[in-house]
Amino acid sequence: MGDSQRSGMRRMALASVAVGAMLAVLPVAGFAQTTPDFSGVKVALVTGGAHPYFQPWKVGGAQAVTDFGIGGTAFDESGEWDQTKETAAINALAAQGYNAFGIFGVSPTDINTVFETLKASGFAVGSIASCPAGDVNKADFCLSTDTKTAAYLAAQGAIEAMGGAGNLVHLTGNAVDSNTQQRIAGVQQAVDETAGAVTLLTTVTDIDKDLQSAQKAVADLLAAQGADINGIVTTAYNPAVAATDGVKTTGLPIKVIAIDDDPVVLQAIRDGIISGTVVQNPWGQAYVGSWVLSALQSGACTMNTPGLIVDSGSFLVTTVTVDTYDAQRLATSMDILAKFQTEYMTCAA
Amino acid sequence: MTAATGSVAARRPRLRADSLLVRTLITAVVFLAFALTTNGFLNPQFTVYPLLRDTATLTVIGLAQLCALAIGQLNLAVGRMAAVAAMVAGYCYQFLGLGLIEGALLGLTAAAATGALTGLIIVRAHVNAFIVTLAMDFALLGLVLAFYQAFTAPLNAFTVKPEGMDLIRNGSLNGLCIGDMCGPSWVPVLFLFSLLIVALVSVFFSRTTLGRELLATGSNERTARLSGIPTERRIVQAHTLSGLLAGLAGIMLAMTNGSFSAAIGENLLIPSFLGPVLGGTPMTGGFVSAPGTAVGTFLTQTIRQGLTLKGIGLDWLNIALGLVLLAALSVGQIRRRRGRS
Hints:
Order of helices and strands of chain B: HHHHHEHEEHHHHEHHH
Number of domains of chain B: 1
Distance between the termini of chain B: 19 Å
CATH class of the largest domain in chain A: Alpha Beta
CATH architecture of chain B: Orthogonal Bundle
Number of strands of chain A: 14
Strand order of the largest sheet of chain A: 2-1-3-4-5-12
Radius of gyration of chain B: 20 Å
CATH topology of the largest domain in chain A: Rossmann fold
Structural class of chain B: mainly alpha
Strand order of the largest sheet of chain B: 1-4
Low-confidence stretches of chain A: 1-9, 24-33
Structural class of chain A: alpha/beta
Oligomer: heterodimer
Strand content of chain A: 15-25%
Distance between the termini of chain A: 46 Å
CATH class of chain B: Mainly Alpha
């Protein structure tokens, strides 16, 4: 295990301790005294494929089992970014007795079909970390980063770090994913608001499958246009790590706003190599999502608005907040949980 | 024909029939092993039905690759040809308001035309099929993406569902009844449809002159040409058929998934080889096995589904599939050597 992984595990362990402490003192929406019986619920958290972003799901899901007495949890990342394989993995979990599903759909335009099938079989379903494309969510709820807002926030941070003028580059994920299109729109919105002071030099897509392809793309970009670039905004995990490495290695005076909190990114913020990062809330997605799914499947609660979309939060982290943002993120998670229990759902007394 | 060659010729079909039987038995043993040892493997709704439905689509993409293998070539663009068909069909449903069949037929025409163009480039430019289909894959990737972005941004998908699409996705033989007797709910309509395609392709290669001439071209192009077969035309026809079947798989996949998206076909290349190769079709041309392709695809999907149910990690899943493929290739090679000796 490398230093970065050890650091990540340490943070997750600390987060778990902090959650325990918060649960002990917070009267969580009337459930502090009368905790529903979730022992008959088995929650499956299914990602689109293997990706470091989802690793906190494992910890969040396990923590939810401990804290809420859920019957079991599974973390499945065997989808290989193929909707057919992901659907097969979901079916396999259903066949094994899992009855509540938190799913990151590979294809935002197809995932509603999967949700419909699961719902028809009597399972609770949450769309986690990504909502279906379009206006309709066939899952019971969606708990996800508002991708356009997060990208807008990141681009604003980069533009501010650039001094409000210059050439900006956007590095992101799979172009055929509608979430990527939302991110592109968010960055474009921030650029448009500068009234021409900032030019979006290029948007590089399809470099989030693995770190190697992201590193190669960044190396090519910096070799070809490094001198013309004033800022880089990244809205996908691997490009963020690659851009951080690239700017560190070349020493170019480029302002970078990354995404997520890979230890490489956090250390680069502390060292002043990059300006900041926009962190999301995967741990909270799994933790809160597991509770909501259990409450729905056990019949303890029902959604007031089926298909409700809830922002799981995104936070701009800079040198000032790099060592304290986790507490803010944790508080946000607990706040979202409380809102589900009091505002978004109706629960039996 | 001498007595010796006559004897060898008589033995070869029996060898191939034996080979299919052996593969089918191996598949049955693997299926039974998972059924006996894996909790939930025989669940009709969540295991058997999806297993057969995925097998249906992947068998058809395997048949698309098989058409190229028949002439001793490869089609690395099968996935993108599937995407082209889905794209055209999706456009027809969303913007032209066409029905299920009409849109699908136009999509298939587009994919077949793409295949024909690929074949024409191969024979006119005298460039290796590997290079041409690889280049075609890249070109179609750009074309498909640009098309979706032009017409469906930011969704990058046609989401209109023509009437009958849900039936294709969810339909089973349970809907087919004779009197009070209905078919099993765990057999998807799509699976039956794919078996029909397998039968048609099998008859095409074994019973028609055109099919046999394609195999003769694949067996030895020079000999086939000298014996009067228009080999260049046959190569174009093989790629046209490959495009047509790839397109059919693309439309089946889109209907199964629920929308016609730019991502259709992204992950079809490797399955397109797994089915035929595990089913006994050599990479060198001259012989194909359409039923073997269905068996090979079913074996692959059974292993994948079984190991997924066992909760085996992604790495081990792919290692297991790779080992099965290597074993199948080795067995095929040994049998061919024995056949020659």
